[in-house]
Structures are given as structure tokens and as C-alpha cells.
Amino acid sequence: xxxxxxxxxxxxxxxxxxxxxxxxxxxxxxxxxxxxxxxxxxxxxxxxxxxxxxxxxxxxxxxxxxxxxxxxxxxxxxxxxxxxxxxxxxxxxxxxxxxxxxxxxxxxxxxxxxxxxxxxxxxxxxxxxxxxxxxxxxxxxxxxxxxxxxxxxxxxxxxxxxxxxxxxxxxxxxxxxxxxxxxxxxxxxxxxxxxxxxxxxxxxxxxxxxxxxxxxxxxxxxxxxxxxxxxxxxxxxxxxxxxxxxxxxxxxxxxxxxxxxxxxxxxxxxxxxxxxxxxxxxxxxxxxxxxxxxxxxxxxxxxxxxxxxxxxxxxxxxxxxxxxxxxxxxxxxxxxxxxxxxxxxxxxxxxxxxxxxxxxxxxxxxxxxxxxxxxxxxxxxxxxxxxxxxxxxxxxxxxxxxxxxxxxxxxxxxxxxxxxxxxxxxxxxxxx
Length: 432
Fold this sequence. Notes:
It contains ten helices and 17 strands. By secondary structure, it is an alpha/beta fold. A twelve-stranded mixed sheet has the order 1-2-14-12-13-11-10-15-16-9-6-5. It has a five-stranded mixed sheet with strand order 8-7-3-4-17. Strand 1 and strand 2 form a beta hairpin. The protein is globular, with a radius of gyration of 22 Å.
């Protein structure tokens, strides 16, 4: 039940089920011994039970009551804000104007989708909370990528030289930093890499590197029909938390999208609610690559009860994030051939409603939502990835972060039939 429902407004996702469906069959290699395991992403990571502001913000009530209570809270917040700042800066004015433009789309669409989901027994809040702490989010991968810059890169533009096959039972060292690693197995596998255990989905490929060593991905020789990216945008909260390194917007232009994209490739970028970032993507970044903007979508984050995780009109954090979708339009030449796939139109202003992960920067998978626009056989790539997806190629300096076994519940499954392998991973209706 990974895609709970779809309508003209958009869709409701069960983000955790989307992850688990890639691990329906999983084997674990330890000391050259093979065993079957049930592999489920930890439930507590998706148990957002109440608004982060301490007050549940009911979507239906917000519409039916004209959102008066929320507006009063916003007014109080604004008054407090004005005591410190006599007037809003240009960025805040732009942000407020953009919010007012899309506010009704978010509110009405979310209400419709949440009400429909509740009628199916989803987003009702009836969940058995797991009283366990979240996994540690400490990650050494970015630091390892920095150290790996001293390793030589493959000079020849040869696909065989820049690719290696991941064999689960092979205990010899694997070069993850300068070669694309492929797993061609039909099953997921728990393997040891760099002294740590990771869960690798079936039919996946990945490159663990930073921006300066992306060449092996280009040399990999594949053209992709879908490219999704979640850039590490610069903002004050990232600088304060030091959770990950940010990247200046202008540096994103160096991404070799024209070398990776097939004609009419769907390019999707996660964008913060900062208006300058949105303008940059629409007016500079996409045109620089030859990508035409075709739609803006919104990821709406709700609790397990279907309430906004933040008040919709909060002057600080909003309960939604933006996705900018575009089509790669190569310049006239051999690429515009008769073999070019027919393009499926993308609807504008659609919503993706889901309970977000409690883990920082973990976005929901878009594989099922975007499949109609790229085809079931489309080749998919994720840039700045922090996890892997079955059938996808992924790149980033933390590309294995959420594949670490500390984020999964692994239990022996040798005595379980294949069709029962996911029973313990699948929540009953009305739970998340």
C-alpha cells in the first residue's frame, strides 16, 4: 500500500512501505555464511504523531473554520517578530507573497486527500507507537569521500574500467569511491562494506563520491529518463546545525546533466521554501542545462493523524516543500531522432501528502509517483542521494547513509515462505 490513493489533487504516500517493498526478499552474508532475513525500515522513524509546534493543526478544521485559530497564532507570532524587526526584508516579503499564491492549493488539496485517505483507514492516528529511540544519524561517509580524493581516478573513458560488480559473498575490498558499483542480484543483500553492514537493494548501482569526483558516473555510459536531485542548499539552519556540507547555488551548474539525460528526460529538483532558490532553479539552473520547466509540485508533510506538521501560515517553517519538474530539451542534432520516446504531459500543482521521516533530510521515494511520466522501463538516477532504490542509479557523498543496518530491523526468516517475507513489514490499514 505504498501509494495509498491518487486523485486530481495528487496522491497520498506511505513512505515507509515504499522503502520496504525493495526488501521483500533479502539475504545476509556473514563469515561467508548465507541466511535469509526479514528486512524492514524501523517503524519509529515514521511515527510523527503530533505537530512540531505542540498544537495539532487539523486540516479539515482549518478549512471549515476559515483557519481563524491558526491565523490568530500567526498574528501573535508576527507581532512578536515585529518587536525585533521593524519591517520584513525582501526575502521575507517574497516568501509571504509566494505562500499566499499557493495557500489555497495546499489547503484544499490536502483536505481532500487526507479525507479520502481516512475513509480507507489511513492517516487516522491509530498506530501502536514503538517506544524505541531513533537510530543515530552520525555518518562518516562524507569524511571518507574527502579522504578518498587522494585515490587515482580511472583515466580511460571505458565503461568496464569505471564499473564493478558487487558480489555479496565476496569479502575482498571494494573501491566505492572511483567506480560505479552495481548489484545485479534479484534479492536484496546485507553486505559488509568498509567494516560496516549495509542493506543493498536488488538491481541497483551507486557511486560514493563528492562533487569533484563525479566523472565515473559520466563514464558509466548511461542516459537516464528520470533524474531526481536533492541539493544541499545553503541556509542558516544548515550552517548552525553543521549536519552536512552545503553547496553554493552557482556550483550546481557544474552538474553534467546534458551528459546524463536522455532526450525529454524528466528532471526533478527538491527546492527549499526560500524564494531565491526557487527563482534560481527556474530562471538560471534549468535553462543552463537546457531543461524546460513544466510543473511545480508540493510535498505536504502531515502527522499520522493527517494534520500539518507545522501550521500552514507559520512565519517560520512551512509544512510543505517544493518540487520543480522539467524536461530536458537537447539542442537540435542527432538526439532528436525517430527513436525518441513519446512525452507524457506532467500536470501542474499536484500534491504529494505523506508522513515525513523523523530522520533529517530523508525524502520520500518518488519512484511510484513519477513512473507514469517516464515509463515502467525508464532508467532513473538520483543525485545527492542518501539512500538506494531498486532499479535506480544513485550518486552522492552519503549515498549509503540510510542503507546502514542501524536503520533497519533484521530478523531471521529461513523458515518463512517467500510470499510471507514482508508480513511483518506491512502495517495494517490506519497505521503508518
